[in-house]
Amino acid sequence: MKRAMWCTLGLVWMAFLLAGCGDDGEAVSAANSDRGAPIAGMAEGYLDFPVGTPLGGFTSRCRCFGGKGRYDARHGAYHDAFTPSVGVQTQPRVAAMWLENGSQELVLLKVDAIYTFEGVVNAVAQRLSAAVGHDLTGKVVVASSHSHSLPANFDQGITWYLGGDKFNREIFERLVASITTVALEARQHREPVAIGIGQRTDWDPHDRVYGDRRGENDDTRFFSDIPVGPYKDPYLSVLRVDTVAGKPLGLFFAFAMHGTVAGDDNQLWSVEASGHVEAAVAERFDAPVVVGFMQHGGGDASPRGVDDLFARMESIGDIAADSIFDLWRNTPTSSKPISIESITRSLDTQRDVLRVHRDYATLQYAPYNPDPEFHSDDVIYDDQGRLRNPIDEFNTNTGGAFCGDATPSLPVRTIGSSVFPYASCAEVGDLAGIFTLFFNLQNVQVPLPESLRAKVTASRIGPLPILEPGGNIVTDDALLAFFPGEPTSTYTEQFRRRAAAELGMKHTLPIGYAQDHQGYLLIPEDWLQGGYEPNINIWGPLQGEHIMEGLLNASAAVLRSEAADPPDPPGSYPDPIYPDAPLPHLAPDLTPAAGTALTEPPAYMLIPLRGLAPAVAPPPQVRRVNDIVQMMWEGGDPGVDLPLVYLEKRSSAGAWERVHTAAGRDVSSPMHDILLATTPNPLLPADAVQRHYWWLGWQAVSHVINRAGLPLGEYRFHIFGHRYTGGAETWPWPSQPYELSSSSFEVVPAEVTVHLDGASLSASIDAHAKGFRLIDIEGNSRGANPLRGATLTAILSDSSTRDLHPGAPAISGGRAVWTLDNANLAGVSAIRVVDGNGNQGTLSLN
Fold first, then answer.
1. Which of 126, 243, 712, 730 could form a disulfide with 247 if both were Cys (CB 3.0 to 4.6 A apart)?
2. Cβ atoms of 181 and 91 closer than 8 Å
3. What is the CB neighbour count within 10 angstroms for residue 689?
């Protein structure tokens, strides 16, 4: 058994507790003079990236570690050492809320990305400040969803080149411009609102949505009231925003879940599991509302669900949506005056300033010993099982990476300890040469600048009506805490406890992957359990909770006072400084034939549904679920062209109309209904004159609701794209639009497969062998799916019919199964099975 240990808080923190409470123990609310009626605007949009940008999150996509996900030799303008993306399953989104009370503001932005870069946060804040005419420094929060299948080379921190490729200024600028546009749209939509917060715990008890992935700490007790064993952040939180009349405008929800359904061999952009939860929640409403997912303690939480790849992502959405919508529905709101105050700090995270407080000691590192023969005492715990202090095992002045194992994993110098989990810590200074080689860099500075500062933000909002996990409704201030990395479950639990004890704030929403990125955030006791998570952060066991303490201390100094202090005093808390990186000069190709439908496949076309027989145009007739429709055309260079494809249906009056989801959104290529991919000809080099062929794939399935019940009728695809017009040396690249439509096709009912084995009758809708859509939560995206609402009809030898009533079917192997009475089959020549959507199949008994 590993040593039992738990984080206790002693008298050293009692002063904070007393300062943070009134006479009755309730948190002291912010000054009434700063309150005003809440005003908010919400908006959503898509991020402007070019296909070809590499996907972040898996170092194995780097050619230096195998180049996973590469299926041809293409090389484009937007990647360096990583495998380029080839298309889109879902386009990354941004959801925005601009919240005011007449004197204070908070701009809350959720983006689909692997992580957040403080340079993006600063640039967005600067551009928003210029647009509105006053300073928003420290009042802009950018939080990311942590999808491992989205562009990532917008971060200038060299550490993260191994997670998303070398920094590209054009990708950075396009990201900042996209976020800024949506934020300003939210501001334009401001109106008086009613807001509130709801929370539940243990809402996914059987791990159907998400589960603990970190087994290394399962036999360690960190908190006396939480049993030993697998543990995941149990919280689900909702921030609800309505008009004062009660019309829903939007919601942000948060729980803990990695975006890793798709592995390192995936080449398509995807918003991953969290984005599909957003889509499923959005479809619970009868009109479009803004929906955004944020992370709680997702650093050690994996997605679960059923089925495979993109269908599995949809299944997680289906499983989670009802609980989230139910919490939203029960969350109270109020339009009464509130205070909004934020604090932003770029914290010093240099090795020698790291401190973490416990009731028995202030944990810190022993002074760095430069002697190359130095070896630590390798004694981690004292005779009471507490952390021995000061810590001499982390003896490095440049940082340690790849910690967490008993032996080194790389052939480089380690930090002078041979005890687990320090033994595998590689000197970052020695790794600098690897960075230089892999990414063609010059004069890499160590310690790495991005490791020396960490941006945090905390916002106190209230008083608000808050639905507590136990079902009580209280009125109190809420603390939204934004952490620069991947907080684990013990980390968010520690924060909630410390915020209550030190700030007197019981109602907290810790949000990770926000404002900056420092790798995994763990409390020291958990870091020392080793495993995967400790290998990414640079400054060892004290780094994570030191950042937490910095946020708590800043909150105590500013948010607990009645003065409205500057959220980030200019120049007082500087972010890292990065070298200038110019915009790339490789212009897109001129594509005069863009907008031309292909009549035969090109000599080579990468189709992401590998093994699917290619087709350039839809067939005349398409069966629900059973069939996949394709189309190919010559389009623009991905530098300017990300085609927007709408699904259209012919109305009874003969006009083509866009198909909408149940909530009123257009069914289009940014969403999961339509896949996009592109192939250049020739594949390389990037600066050759290339033609660009585009492909779409669509399975005849509804968006989220009643997937096997897509309305019958005549359909087509309507495509809008752009071609480069030339004349620019750097982005933005001038372009002009093109437009084309596919041939029309008729959607007909799915064919139902029916079998009779003795008295057992089974029926299923069999998805296409290369299907990518979820059909049924108890089915298979590439196999059998059970019928719902089916009726059974016996067809007699004289062609007359009679209904069969065998009762409700069982579901087995993706099939609906009934037990028939053989006596009732006398004289029956066939059985017809029809589901509630009119999909049907007939089994002949002859």
1. 243
2. no
3. 9
